[in-house]
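Researcher: Go.
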Amino acid sequence: MYVGLLTSKGARMKRAALYLILIGLTLIPIRLAAADVTLNNTVVKAYFSPDGGALKAITRQIDRAVREVLVQSYIMTSKPIESALINAYRRGVEVEVIFDRNEQKERKYVTSKMLKSRGIQVWLDDRHASSHNKIIIIDRETVITGSFNFTYAAEARNAENLLIIPSAELAGLYTDNFLAHRRHSAKY
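Model: Structure:
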């Protein structure tokens, strides 16, 4: 009888210790930087921030562009992305950007002015309450999208996600959407 009490009490203590360890593990922040997932034989790259490599992945894709980079963005304050777009334009890549008009107005059109002064076509979309897209289409073959705003905070401080999807079919849908928004946007 005495041995049975120790065994059940000991088992309860072990179980309690295990539960405490499991609870403790849930409190440890786990940072998943990036992952590759295969969807219908297409490798999709997934990135998570903060500090998950999304910014470098975006600039790397822009740097690889050969013909065209189309961007729809609510806001852009990321200097590395702006620089990558300017460098692409200088390499002869056609670059067009559609921004939310109200957000650009709030920021006194700083990004619009800077990109336009470098020769990049900038459009302002005010047809919607918010033009909250976060999309980059590379050579009509690759789509970059997710919650990741093209800002410093998205990479350094926010919990964001980004997908890089190599698919001409998907890029075609996103390009059609880009062109539809460009038609009702005002050229800056």
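Model: The mean pLDDT is 86.
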